[in-house]
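Entry 14. Ran structure prediction on the chain below.
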Amino acid sequence: IDLVADDTPALRATFIGAAPPPSQMYWRGPVLWDFDGRSWTAVEWSRSMGRPDTVPGSKRYEYVLEIEPTERNQLVALELPLAAPPGSQLGKDFSLRSDEPLNGITRWRMHSALQTTLATDPSHTDLHPALRRLALRLPEGYNPRTRALADTWRREAGPSTAASDNAIVKRALAWIRADFAYTLDTPLLGRNTVDEFLFDEKAGFCEHYSGAFVVLMRSAGIPARVVTGYVGGYRNPVGDYWLVRRSDAHAWAEIWLDDRGWVRVDPT
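Output, structure tokens:
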């Protein structure tokens, strides 16, 4: 919430050639896999697992990022980055980390492709077993109403296939868009945060929506994870660059569909 009121710059992007529309400017940062019932965290070992599991789209962009200091190693990039620029590492979940902490303004030349096209590479048609387990894992004893709803939806949709999983995703999004509202004025949720958000409050901001959506998907047997970063940008015509502010911080979700790989879903 603090970031929403912070209008200071987070990064500046200068595109070499065409720029994507602002609605497609998802600036990917930490990918969160672990949920302990209260909070989401990243995993550090994804950068040692080889190339990512999704074929990026064919629409590609070259650009230079000027990133403000954060004192951390986490980088952001227009998703999906195609390779790690010198001085950084690309994780299997397309997260980028700098070899050194970002203690000053740094410049990075990057290439990205919009997410995603149909995965035609046979090696991208199955999710690594360790990642599948991680992307389905939920702590025991939390959010029983969400689990019960997901069980009902799974029985009605049938065994897990790309088609039945996609039907559950569409059902969840239709429910959210019909019955939920966006607000920053939310009460502190209790032990079963997802249950309280989905069934009691039905209002919140991007962290509520993305986290609850991922828990709902995992409860239905669909691998899912939370992605954080920024969305959008403001073009400065004088300098011909795009400014992204800290107030543009955002969180969204990704789900795994066997015929497509990881697919972005923004339920907010």
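The CA atoms of residues 35 and 138 lie 7 Å apart. Will compare against last week's run tomorrow.
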